[in-house]
Amino acid sequence: MKLSTKKICVLAMFAAISFIVANTLYISIFPAAPFLKYEPKDVIITIGGFLLGPMASFIISLVVSLVEMITVSDTGPVGCLMNLLSTCSFACTAALIYKRRHSLKGAVLGLLAGSVTMIAVMLLWNWLITPLYMGASRETVEQMLLPAFLPFNALKAGLNSALVLCLY
What's the pTM? Predict the structure, then answer.
């Protein structure tokens, strides 16, 4: 990906908008897991990827995750990693497919694939990392996978996909 001054500025604007959206529009969905908050920053990052390609989604995700980690996050590097994995698995997958099939059908297929990828990736990473983050046993986290993590990530992916289709 060649980074001209114009492209760097566009990436920076998408990152700034994503950061603002993430820190002003968020909802805690599951009381049993208050750290699972929905914020629509992935919508902005995915649209950036649709316009500029999957590498743009990665760059925007990385910048936003790092800025959140050093400014507003109380989860530190673990939260940064989880944000990056979640957003990239959704937005980069969707943008990659959309880049190859530049049509409404390609966008829908990309968003579906991104949703499935994000859900699978986050179930795995929540199983691996959440015990360290929460200080809970692996068994406790395993009991949260289906009733909390799976529906949260499915809802997040569905909302993000619907919003991307409406806005893009």
Answer: 0.92
